[in-house]
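Researcher: Structure for this, please.
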Amino acid sequence: MEAQGERLLQDLVTQEKNLVRKVEEAKASAKAGVEAAVAEAAKVVGDAKAKAEAAAKRELEAATKEAEAAREAIVKAARESAEALNAKASANGGKALTVVLEKVLP
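Model: Predicted structure, token format:
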């Protein structure tokens, strides 16, 4: 009977050691899984950040080109308007001189 009790006790010790080993393996596996998930999350965040930065850069470049085109259109319109006024003033300069001379020298 005592031998049987000793054998049962040994079986219980063996089972406990097996359970402890399985728990340690499960902990190690869970830790590895968490580390892998953290690494994957960091990669995803890095990729998303890079994509966002690239999109922001493209948007900035497009906005800069659009602003430059608008500025050029405004400058061109102002230049054309100034040239038209200059041409009109030049055309009327001779008439103005004639009118002034007619008034001064009857």
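Researcher: Any notable elements?
Model: DSSP finds one helix and no strands in the chain. Residues 1-106 form one domain.
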